[in-house]
Every structure is written in structure tokens, then in C-alpha cells.
Amino acid sequence: MIYDVLIVGAGPAGMTAAIYASRGNLKVGLIERNVPGGQIVYTQVVENYPGFKSINGVDLAMVMMEQTAEKDVDFIYEDVTSIKKEDNLFTVTTNENEYKAKAVIIATGQANRKLSVPGENRLIGRGISFCALCDGSLYKDKDVLVVGGGNSAVEESLYLAGVCKSVTIVHQRDEFRADPEAVDKIKDKDNVHIILDSTVQRFMGTDKLEAVEIVNLKTGDVQEMKFSAAFLYAGHLPATSFLKDLGILDERGYIITDQNLMTSIPGLYAAGDCVIKDVRQIATAVSDGSISATHAVKYVRSLK
Ligand SMILES: Cc1cc2nc3c(=O)[nH]c(=O)nc-3n(C[C@H](O)[C@H](O)[C@H](O)COP(=O)(O)OP(=O)(O)OC[C@H]3O[C@@H](n4cnc5c(N)ncnc54)[C@H](O)[C@@H]3O)c2cc1C
What we know:
Layout lengths: L1 E7 L3 H12 L4 E4 L13 E2 L8 E2 H13 L3 E4 L3 E7 L2 E6 L3 E9 L3 E3 L7 H4 L4 E2 L2 H4 L7 E5 L3 H11 L4 E5 L9 H9 L3 E4 L2 E7 L6 E6 L5 E5 L2 E4 L3 E3 L29 E3 L11 H22 L1
Parallel strand pairs: 1-2, 1-8, 2-5, 8-19, 10-17, 11-12, 11-17, 12-13
Antiparallel strand pairs: 3-4, 6-7, 7-8, 9-18, 14-15, 15-16
């Protein structure tokens, strides 16, 4: 069987693409290596996606998944390891199978770089967050921690300083890598404390984050501090390593597309957080899903 459109990744971008493509009355498959929902599954509360004043990330993922499942879309739970195109047909290889498709949409998103320390995996979504804009307001008048020293860490700390009682920034180097103006602003805030040359070596808490162990990387001294939340900004990694031989990635691994979200390979589209863009949110991922699928459908019809 040959799919008209195969979509890789069932986050908000991939599910939207599937809904749009299936409405074009085409044979559509959606391949996901984990659970549908993508990064929103790790979001405590979403309050900036129109239509839902406030919704838990898992619940939003379920609503999207139910709507997608009502369409004529094949859900395939496998990990895509390579894509290649020959004679106008794509071969999408997974850890288990090979699929053929006329057009492919890559919607594999990105993953937050974790610190990989004890307690982290267990407390993600229970006090550990990767998005101050999304979750900061849950910690009004609380003491929170930010880990990182780049632009995201400093800018999100500025936001948190206006919402939370105090913000402690832990950075592993002796100076910030962020924009100097933003660094000056953060240093001027009375409720921001900065701990340099240090990192978190353990997250602690039973059902939610309660405390962290911070180690000074120069002296080896360890201190335990109490926080209601920790926001981690150790960077992101686009989930695109399986595409590195196709010549469609920029130097950081994000996918280069035209305004219709097609890559330099005709019929190969990309959508959502894995694409080069400034704002990576659910609303922009959903927008990309609709644009890429609309053009993928046009492309498939043009082959007939
Ligand atoms: C903690 C957190 C909180 C957030 N809160 C908000 C918020 O409140 N509001 C907001 O608008 N945005 C929020 N965001 C951002 C938002 O979640 C993302 O912008 C959005 O999920 C991007 O959607 P996507 O479909 O592009 O990618 P993703 O959501 O990353 O989905 C990609 C999917 O592709 C799958 N995949 C990856 N590689 C493969 C492969 N090789 N084979 C098969 N499947 C693969 C992944 O398993 C994943 O399910 C938050 C992000 C995080 C991490």
C-alpha cells in the first residue's frame, strides 16, 4: 500500500496535519514513537491556546488525539529512522517496517535538553518545568529556581521575577552567555539571586519538587535549597538527527523550508518546533500543521 501523505510525529503539528490531510480524502498515516501529544504531555497547564481557558497538557493531548482518531488516519506506533526519495516516492523506514508515501510531513518537534541528574525525570511536570511563560503563573509568590545562563534562562527569569516571590538562577559558568542588556536588567532585580560556577546535582520531593542540591563546580561545596519550582534552560535539541543526510537542516539541526513549509526536496514538508522559526508554541505548531498539510495535499493531487 502507498500512503498519499505520511506524517512523522503526533504532536500538535502532526495531529493538525493529519486532520487537514484526511479531509482532503487521501490515504494518511501518522507515525509516533512515543504517545500522541508531543511536548504538551509534559505541560502542567496550558492557558494560552484559544478555545481552552485553562487545560492540563495531557487532557489537551487527549482531545487532539480523539479528534484525529475520528478521521480516516492510520496511527502507527514506531520510531522513524530514515526517509529517502526515489522515483517520486518516499520510503519511510522505522525500527520495525518500511512505508511508501507520495508526500511526507516531518513534525518531530524538539526535546528539551535535560540535566540528567537524580530526581529529574520523576519530577518533570511536578514542579520541574521547561517553560516559564507557560507554567510561571502557577508559582505566584513562591521561591523558584532557574537553571541556565543563556538568553532563554535570563529572559524567562525576568518574567518570573515579576510573578514569583524570588528567583534563584544557577549557572555553571562564571558569567552569563545571554544578551548583556538582559543580564544587566536581571542583576538589578531585588528578588533575583545569582549562583555562578554551579549546577544542580539532585532534585528532591515526594509528589512534587521540594528542594534541590546545588554543587559549586569549583569548590565541590554542596548546598540544599528549597524551591517550589525549577525551570530548566539547558537548551533544546531538534528531533531531526535521522534526517542529517538529506541536506535540509541548518547548522543547529532545524529544518529549512519555504513559506509553504516544503523543504528543498519536492513533496517533503516540515511543521512545528522542528522547523526554523522564532516562536515555538502550540498555536504556531498547529498553524504549521495546517499549512504543510494543505500544500502536501496540493502536491499529491498534482502528481495524479
Ligand atoms: C514543559 C512544556 C510546557 C509547554 N507549555 C506550553 C504552553 O503552555 N503553551 C504553548 O503554546 N506551548 C507550550 N509549550 C510548547 C509546545 O508544547 C510546543 O511548541 C509544541 O508541542 C510543538 O508541537 P510539535 O508538534 O511541533 O512538536 P512536539 O510537541 O515536540 O511533538 C513531536 C512528536 O514527534 C514525535 N517524534 C519525534 N521524533 C520521532 C521519530 N523519529 N519517529 C516518530 N515520532 C517521533 C515525538 O515523540 C513527539 O510526540 C510547552 C513545552 C514544554 C516542553
